[in-house]
């Protein structure tokens, strides 16, 4: 029977793990077992921190919309309520961008919302 040399797949897998742990500290960047452990924890932290980042962004959007609304003579809650009742389909991300970078357009939206 012919000889089968093994290990190419496992070596490739190990190399891939070590490539992913580039920049980790101490043995987690160079030792395979510690690198695997580090990757597991890194994935968990990444998922949780991405959720936290989104949470922080949403609060910032609300703060920016409220600031823009108060400049134009209304409040955040009143503005959002009127936009919902009039079926204006602008999400908070877009509204905050308009309030921050395009105050004239945001003023038109608040005027449209407060009319009637």
Q: How is the secondary structure organized here?
A:
Layout: H1 8-20, H2 32-71, H3 76-85, H4 92-101, H5 103-114
Task: Report on the architecture of this protein.
The protein has one domain: Orthogonal Bundle (c-terminal domain of poly(a) binding protein), CATH 1.10.1900.20. It is 73% helix and 0% strand. The protein contains 5 helices and no strands. α4 (92-101) crosses α5. The mean pLDDT is 94. This is Large ribosomal subunit protein bL20. Keywords: Ribonucleoprotein, Ribosomal protein, RNA-binding, rRNA-binding.
What class would the helix/strand composition place it in? mainly alpha
The major pleated sheet works out as: none
**Counting H and I runs of at least 4 residues, what is the number of helices?**
5
Backbone CA Rg? 26 Å
Distance between the termini: 89 Å
Overall number of strands:
0
Helices and strands, in N-to-C order? HHHHH
Global morphology: rod-shaped
CATH architecture classification name: Orthogonal Bundle
Task: Give the proportion of residues in helices.
Answer: over 70%
Function: Binds directly to 23S ribosomal RNA and is necessary for the in vitro assembly process of the 50S ribosomal subunit. It is not involved in the protein synthesizing functions of that subunit.
Family: Belongs to the bacterial ribosomal protein bL20 family.
GO biological process, one term: ribosomal large subunit assembly
Protein name: Large ribosomal subunit protein bL20
């Amino acid at each position: 029977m012919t000889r089968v040399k093994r290990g190419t797949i496992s070596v490739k897998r190990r190399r891939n793990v070590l490539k992913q742990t580039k920049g980790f500290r101490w043995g987690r960047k160079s030792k395979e077992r510690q690198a695997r452990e580090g990757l597991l924890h890194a994935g968990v932290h990444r998922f949780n921190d991405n959720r936290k980042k989104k949470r922080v962004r949403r609060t910032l959007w609300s703060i920016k919309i409220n600031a823009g609304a108060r400049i134009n003579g209304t409040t955040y809650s009143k503005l959002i309520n009127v936009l919902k009742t009039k079926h204006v389909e602008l999400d908070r991300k877009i509204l905050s961008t308009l309030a921050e970078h395009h105050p004239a357009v945001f003023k038109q939206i608040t005027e449209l919302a407060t009319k009637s």
